[in-house]
Design a protein that fits this description.
Length: 151
């Protein structure tokens, strides 16, 4: 049993390591990459359900131009997003915040997955550990009578 747990633990460590290494960046991003990334994080104010990066609307083009100008000026991603978001009454940020109530959007799916896996593990463990019912002499007698051919 311990060996099985160690195998699963080792597999989990390898999987997490692969995900962390695979999601890492390949070095500093260019201004064009930063601009495109920031534009994909902003919602187009005039389009329904499109990001600034995906939209061809004049408002989206103006926002892309402003983002590129600010990237070239050396502003940080957070400063650029805060400035663009502050220019409109409705929030243009597509990703929910990672703090406060918005953190629930990030935490709840992971918590639900962990609880589901834990629940399945407990259920399977109980299912496997339930002892088989004892066969009594009365049970054996009933089976013998049922299998005996009629007279």
């Amino acid at each position: 049993m311990v060996r099985r747990w160690l195998t699963w633990l080792a597999l989990s460590v390898v999987l997490v390591g692969a995900l962390v290494l695979g999601s890492g960046s390949d070095g500093p991003r260019t201004a064009a990459e930063r601009s495109a990334d920031l534009a994909s994080q902003l919602r187009c104010p005039t389009c329904q359900g499109q990001s600034v990066a995906d939209s061809n609307a004049p408002a989206a083009e103006a926002i892309r131009t402003e983002v590129r100008r600010r990237v070239d000026a050396g502003e940080s991603d957070e400063e650029i997003l805060a400035y663009i978001d502050g220019q409109f009454a409705d929030s243009l940020i597509l990703t929910p915040p990672r703090s406060g109530v918005g953190a629930l959007v990030w935490i709840l799916p992971v918590a639900a997955l962990v609880l589901a896996v834990a629940g399945l593990g407990v259920s399977f463990r109980r299912w496997r550990s339930d002892p088989s019912p004892e066969v009594t002499d009365d049970d054996r007698r009933r089976v013998s009578e049922a299998l005996r051919p009629p007279p």
